[in-house]
Amino acid sequence: MEELIGSLSTLQAAMSSPVSARAPLQILVVLSPGNRLDHQNECEQLGVPAEWSVIYDPDFVEDELHRRAYDLVLWRISRERQKLPELQRLLHWTHPLPPLVVIAPCENRGSSATEELLELVGHSLRDFCFDDEPEILIRAIRRILAEQTERRAMDRFRQLLESAPDAIIEVDADGTIVLLNGITEQLFGYSQEELLGQSVERLVPDELRERHARHRAKYAANPVTRPMGSGLDLYGRRKDGTRFPVEISLSPVKSAEGSRVSVIIRDVSERKKAEEQIREMQDRYTAQLAGANRKLEARNVEVERANRLKSEFLASMSHELRTPLHTITGFAQLLAEEVAGELNAKQKRFVDHIHRDSLHLLDLINGILDISKIEAGKLELHPENFNGIDALGEVISSIAPLAAAKAISLEQQASTVFTIHADRLRFKQILYNLLSNAVKFTPHGGKVSIVCSTTGAWVEVSVTDTGVGIPKEEQAAIFDKFYQVGSTTRGVPEGTGLGLAITKRLVELHGGRLWLASEPGAGSCFSFTLPF
User: Fold this and answer.
1) Which of 114, 359, 470, 498 has a 20 to 30 Å separation from 64 between CA atoms?
2) What pLDDT score does 198 carry?
3) Are 335 and 351 in contact (CB under 8 A)?
4) Nearest-CA neighbor of 437 among 467, 480, 393?
5) DSSP string covering 291-307
6) CB atoms within 10 A of CB 243
7) Residue 412 forms beta bridges with which residues?
8) What's the pLDDT score for residue 6?
9) What mean pLDDT comes out for the span 103-128?
10) By three-state DSSP, how is residue 217 classified?
11) Where are the alpha helices (DSSP H) in 344-480?
12) Contact 71, 144 (CB under 8 A)
């Protein structure tokens, strides 16, 4: 709608300004045989391009006007009076006649023939001059050009008005309709004759006319191009009394008749209907979403309750299982030490299997107990200040036999003695989990290194191995519970899949973070931070 307002304003401005470029003026010159017309220079002096056509037989003027559209006809009357009937017939032509200028010989000035000609032309309101009066001819051409410009602008304005998709009306300062297009008739059901000269309030529902009049008065005090009644629901009224939603834009117009206002009215019934349908769909969707959210919340509560019960069950079962397992492990160790008597080779092998598998089962139960406590929020930390180098040495001593069995070298790099504020037991558990994994996934003869450094308020510990490495697509999942990235160097999976999950949770419970850098075949580097 804004573009349409701009086009109307531009066209109205063009109607009141001179046209710098125009098509050549089509001029028909009617002469008698042997006559000539020397006023072509006058048109050239006006700076007006013109195309001249000359006919020497007045009997063919009507045929020529039928054949081609002319902007001006110059008819030079000879001394012979017998040519007047052709001119008289043309002046009373029933078809639209272009502007006509009659030129008479100057020597006929004052003659009865000239008087008769003047009477004939004057009666028909046409221009007349003698051939020695070029200024009259120029003045007539100027007027014709002005009329032509105005006519073309009005034609263009009317075309634009009628081609507009919206109803367009123009009202004067009193709100009287002075102009309207065909869409206005279709939209409101009135004919042009029924609306011209009527108050614009005729198109407003009865109950809204008072409000409309106030808005119109307010706009008259500050006339600028803008939407009318911004934020209000506007309605139009048809001839049959029905009302419909509209959108209205106003634009001030300056004219010779005084201040006027162009009003563009758009029927927004379909848009309002679509908006209402969208609103209803949104309401239904919101209600469905709210219902789904309530169900989801209830389900989440149930899941959380089930997880809590599961964790409590696992924790309870882990406590119950650990007691007999400790007994099994202890007696298996006593048997292996042959305290109760010497064992043969087969018995030793059996006892070794019992001891090893009971330790593995005990490790699994301890892991489940830890992860259950963490998930239930019942794992308690007992932070203290302790020497990180001493704690690291204790863990390396525990891992050394596992590394020696695979000829893996353990290297420790610590820039200085540092103190850690953490749970000492859990710190050693974190290190043990990372170092045991490194040894497990490093082939025979490889290397595992531990690097410790301090950064600001944090201690950073990195465990690097020359093992099999971890693909990028699996690196995020290795910290999930029970997830095992692949086989160990012996070709079979080992462990419970809980070690890294517990390690990550323990680091985060201390306020630190754990991350991984790894490439398949190039080893892995696990790093974590704890408070310094």
Assistant:
1) 114
2) 92
3) yes
4) 467
5) HHHHHHHHHHHHHHHHH
6) 14
7) 450
8) 41
9) 68
10) helix
11) 345-376, 388-405, 424-440, 472-475
12) yes
3-state secondary structure of 245: strand
Q: Which of these, 151, 148, 152, 137, lies nearest to 46 by C-alpha position?
A: 137
Give the C-alpha separation, 29 to 481, whole Å.
104
As a whole number of angstroms, the distance between CA 159 and CA 156 comes to 5
What is the reported pLDDT for 249? 86
Averaged pLDDT, 177-204: 91
DSSP 8-state symbol, 482:
T
Q: Classify burial at 494, counting beta carbons within 10 Å of its beta carbon; exposed 0-12, middle 13-18, buried 19 or more.
A: middle
- From the number of C-beta atoms within 10 Å of its C-beta (0-12, 13-18, 19+), residue 152 rates as middle
Q: 258: which strand partners?
A: 255
Mean pLDDT over 445-456 rounds to: 90
The neighbouring-strand residues paired with 243 are 237
Read off the pLDDT band of 258 (50, 70, 90): confident
Contacts of 381 (CB under 8 A, 6+ apart): 422, 423, 426, 509, 510
In the structure encoding, which two tokens stand for residue 68, read together? 């081609």
Q: Which residues 6+ apart lie within 8 Å of 280 measured at CB?
A: none
Long-range contacts of 252-259 (CB under 8 A, 24+ apart): 252/223, 252/224, 252/225, 253/12, 253/170, 257/172, 257/178, 258/172, 258/173, 259/172, 259/173, 259/220, 259/223
Task: Give the residue from 122, 31, 116 showing the smallest Cα distance to 81.
Answer: 116
Separation of alpha carbons 194 and 240, rounded Å: 13
CA 260, 264, 266: angle at the middle one, nearest 5? 160
Q: From residue 329, give the alpha-carbon distance in Å to each of 191, 325, 355, 395.
A: 106, 6, 6, 22
Task: Compute the residue count for the chain.
Answer: 532
Q: What span, in angstroms and rounded, lies between the C-alpha atoms of 23 and 2?
A: 31
Compute the Cα dihedral for 472, 478, 480, 486 and give only its sign. Answer: positive
Mean of all residue pLDDT scores within the chain? 79
Ranges 3-7, 65-69, 414-418: which has the least confidence: 3-7
Per residue in 350-383, pLDDT (tens digit) is 888 888 778 777 777 777 777 777 777 778 889 9
